[in-house]
Amino acid sequence: MTSPVAVTIRLMAGDDLDTVRVIEDAAYGTEAWTCRTFEDELVNGFSSYVVAELSNGQLAGFAGVWFMRDQLHIVTVAVDPQLQRLGIASRLLRAASKWGWRQRCRSQYWRSGSRTLES
Ligand SMILES: CC(C)(COP(=O)(O)OP(=O)(O)OC[C@H]1O[C@@H](n2cnc3c(N)ncnc32)[C@H](O)[C@@H]1OP(=O)(O)O)[C@@H](O)C(=O)NCCC(=O)NCCS
After folding, report:
1. Per-residue pLDDT of the chain (119 residues; tens, 9 = 90+)
2. Structural domains in the chain?
3. Which pTM value belongs to this model?
4. C-alpha–C-alpha distance, residues 113 and 38, integer Å
5. CB 79 less than 6 A from any atom of ligand 1
6. Nearest atom (ligand 1) to Cα of 91
7. How many other CB atoms are there within 10 angstroms of residue 70's CB atom?
């Protein structure tokens, strides 16, 4: 990783979706989710989405998780291709893990596997 960049992690809002979709398209190409998918995720009651914001207000990336009983499922993470390898996804996932712990999640699941969460 090159030097970490300063970002603020905050909850995603409906106003972020235009920029989120631009990052999603750039990161995932033909696999990208539609705007409707993100709108549904923000209101389904078991998801939490966070964004990473640079000091100038630019959105650099986002992550989304589902809370399923005591399990935190990482659903998606994406970072603007111009800003990758700067530690932003790591910051997003650390924030998601902390949030999951506060929601009483004690294990974390990725498509590729799971691990026990630490407080
Ligand atoms: C995967 C992704 C979110 C990583 O974002 P990022 O901000 O660049 O990640 P970080 O800088 O926090 O990297 C943390 C570590 O992840 C690994 N990593 C990140 N990008 C990687 C890549 N393209 N190839 C291999 N390892 C990678 C590395 O171990 C890296 O540490 P290092 O830079 O010290 O080697 C970003 O590349 C992306 O948006 N990709 C397209 C979407 C995607 O594949 N999402 C994940 C599947 S849901």
Report:
1. 555 789 999 999 999 999 999 999 999 999 999 999 999 999 999 999 999 999 999 999 999 999 988 999 999 999 999 999 999 999 999 999 888 888 888 888 886 666 777 66
2. 7-116 (3.40.630.30)
3. 0.89
4. 24
5. yes
6. 12
7. 12
CB 116 within 8 A of CB 32: no
59 within ligand 1 shell (Cβ under 6 A) = no
Candidates 13, 14, 15, 37; CA nearest to 25 is 37
pLDDT at 81: 96
Going from the Cα of 9 to the center of ligand 1, the distance in angstroms, rounded, reads 17
Is the minimum distance from the CB of 92 to ligand 1 under 6 angstroms? Answer: no
Q: Is the CB of 1 under 6 A from ligand 1?
A: yes
Centroid of ligand 1 to alpha carbon of 80 (angstroms): 11
